[in-house]
Design a protein that fits this description.
Elements: E1 8-13, E2 26-30, H1 31-38, E3 44-46, H2 49-82, E4 84-88, E5 96-101, H3 103-112, E6 122-123, E7 127-129, E8 131-138, E9 144-152
Parallel strand pairs: 4-9
Antiparallel strand pairs: 1-2, 1-3, 5-7, 6-8, 8-9
């Protein structure tokens, strides 16, 4: 065997490595790279049948959890879309509200209906007059839905 032979080793990345891969990726790398760079910096571990099957099982579990979360978010989006939120507010002459309806008001009203939202999920300008409005709600997994709001005195 000549001195320029490169031994290849399979490793499992335990941290993201720029130019190589992401956590839990199984990669083939040069033996020296693995032993002198990846292992000492705790970036990877040697691949074995057990560690590979553990990673596969772990990834399958992650996928199932993500699918379950996605289904829950889709159900929540449908529920919100079918809702109509009635908000009573004090009105001055000319249908102008004394206090604007803000994302915080929407969050408070939704909490009464057992739906918890964060301020950054409620995409709206403050409502300053009575009437019917549609407010965009951003959910996880890139899902958006609209909430119907009726502001009256």
């Amino acid at each position: 065997m000549n001195k320029s032979s490169v031994f290849i080793m399979k490793v499992i990345l335990i941290q993201n490595v720029k130019g190589l891969g992401a956590v839990d990726d199984i990669k083939e790398v040069a033996d020296g790279y693995a032993r002198n760079f990846l292992f000492p910096r705790n970036l990877a571990v040697p691949s074995s049948k057990k560690s590979t099957s553990d990673i596969t099982a772990q990834n399958n579990k992650k996928v199932k959890t993500e699918m379950k979360n996605l289904q829950q978010e889709q159900a929540l989006a449908e529920k919100i879309e079918k809702m109509s939120l009635e908000i009573k507010a004090k009105v001055s002459e000319g249908q102008t509200l004394y206090a604007a309806i803000t994302p915080q008001v929407i969050m408070k009203e939704m909490k009464k209906k057992k739906i918890t939202l964060e301020k950054k999920q409620v995409m709206m300008e403050p409502i300053k007059e009575t009437g019917e409005y549609k407010v965009k709600i951003k959910l996880k997994h890139g899902l958006d839905t609209e909430l119907n709001i009726n502001v009256s005195d």
